[in-house]
Amino acid sequence: MQEGAPDPGLYDYQAYRDRPKLQWPGGKTCAVWVAPNLEYYEIDPPIGPHRKPWPKAHPDVVGYSYRDHSNRVSHWRMADVMSRHGFPGSVSLSVALCDHHPEVVADGVDRGWEFFSHGIYNTRYSYGMSEEQERAIIEDSIETVERATGQRIRGWLAPALTHTPRTLDLLAQYDFHYTCDLYHDDQVQEVKVAPKTGNAQLASIPYSLEVNDHYGFNVYGMSGREYADCLIQQFDRLAEEGERTGSGTVMCIPLHAYLIGQPHRIGPFEEALRHIAADPRCWKARAGEIVDHWRAAQ
Amino acid sequence: MSLPEDYTRYPHRREGYDHQFYEWSNMHARAPVSWPGQKSVAVWFCVSLEWFPIVPEDKLFRAPGHMVTPYPDYRHYTVRDYGNRVGVWRMLDAFKAAGVTASFATNAAVAERYPELVEAVLADGHEIIAHSTDMNGTITSDLPEDEERELIADSLSRMETASGVKPQGWHSIARSQSWRTADILVEHGLVYTCDWVNDELPYRFKNGLINLPLNTELSDRMIVATQQHSAEGWAQMMRDSFNWLATEAKGTNYTQGGGRMLPIQLTPYIMGLPYRIGALEELLKDFANREEAWIATGGQIVAEWEKQ
């Protein structure tokens, strides 16, 4: 990015009207990817100068144990609903989870899920990191996930959505293929990066804040049924637009098991997945497949 | 501002948790629990009986539901007290009509100030859980250890003096504990706490304390007061939960099944209002008639789990 400039220079403007044609495999019009956040929040993280990890003195019992519900109870509930309807996960992973609870990561591997990095912990923020520190968390992510899953990660969602001005350039240098941190579009877009070597490229894949279960429940206060309706409407619209314009769209369903896997929400969520899976316009894909298909068409 | 060098070092990164309170365990892989009468879903109603002094102390944090306006905040003082004078009596009638026993997480000050209320709770066979002194009696790690010990001891002794009850369970205000709370609770002979929301069945801490998770997401405070759903919307969510848990209890791809638990936290000044109480009454009748439901107090659920 252009550090300090009013326009950070992340991408070129491109009007939604008259976009280039893009067909997803099998003539599908909307690529749907599900992004479970498998996270680890530390109970007693260091307190940096930019953001306080917990509102209360440590241990913040509710904050910590609320997230821990994912790793004891709700991960399997959420994952099973996804598997039942044929949706693989593309995991936004606090990579230290590979160390703390390898069983959870192994379950994703067994289901054929893709992994990308969401930082080391969701309680360590990138703001203010030196280049050396930022390289350390990128290299740690690559090595840790490779050791735990055999996969070389290709994507990044910044830990707790915290960045530095050099994050995207570094990702391109380390041969990452996509970022989930930019919310400017409903289609895959080129990100302007400044690799120091080679011809590295970086794509922005639509993730979503608006249909993220965190926003649905903890920002907008929706019921599980309202959130499920929201997913259905989001899909129906994007599939219709992709069909009408011939320019395939992307829908992401970003999840946290401790939210969507609560007993009052998981049933309605399953109904939403059932609806989306049954639509012939839906391409159930992993993030990397979507980016590869788009890249090949450029 | 730059970060210290050790910001990318992780001394607690290892297998298992980054603390010593309890061990990791996947609920779905544990030996199945069975509830009395072959029921598959234990439904636990837990009512909060709270007294908010009109002078919040704000020593550590202000409890949820505490005063809002500058002093004197008649509005919130009286709205909260409405729960203890009126709302909770509607709930007691509703429990009795459905033949349901519940837990009441009770400030010691409520037992002292409103003895007829606590007598009625006990007369109907409900359980009292200790819930600090009053709504200024908060805990975090910033509370000095001797003061925390004194607060817990004071809550228990005042409760016993006022009501004759020695509670087995402890519920902190806002579920907020310190690094020391679990040990202090054990020192005082408490069997369980309901503050950690990471599970859906009881489990044991390394120090012997049992945690009976009282889900924040399913509370009327979260659903009705914070997320602003109607009482009917709340009841629908409780039914959706029950139905899911009853199905999960039979066994699925990810679990061999076994008893499940549905904790329903109620607040008299929220769910005890005239236009909301009907939804609770209907729900109680509905659940009391479900063949999968074992409606029990927290203490009963803990005792049953401990046996197994």
From the structure above, extract its key features.
heterodimer, A: 298 residues, alpha/beta, TIM Barrel, 40% helix, globular, B: 308 residues, five-stranded parallel beta sheet
Summarize the structure.
The complex is a heterodimer of chains A (about 300) and B (about 300). Chain A has about 300 residues and is an alpha/beta fold.
Topology:
The complex is a heterodimer of chains A (298) and B (308).
Chain A: E1 30-38, H1 61-84, E2 90-93, H2 97-100, H3 102-110, E3 114-117, H4 131-149, E4 155-156, H5 167-173, E5 178-179, E6 189-191, E7 202-204, H6 213-219, H7 224-245, E8 249-256, H8 257-260, H9 266-277, E9 282-284, H10 287-296
Parallel strand pairs in A: 1-2, 1-8, 1-9, 2-3, 4-5, 5-7
Antiparallel strand pairs in A: 6-7
Helix pairs in contact in A: 1-9, 7-9
Chain B: E1 41-49, H1 74-98, E2 103-106, H2 108-113, H3 115-123, E3 127-130, H4 145-163, E4 169-170, H5 181-187, E5 192-193, E6 203-204, E7 210-211, H6 220-226, H7 231-249, E8 260-266, H8 268-271, H9 274-288, E9 293-295, H10 298-307
Parallel strand pairs in B: 1-2, 1-8, 1-9, 2-3, 4-5, 5-7
Antiparallel strand pairs in B: 6-7
Helix pairs in contact in B: 1-9, 7-9
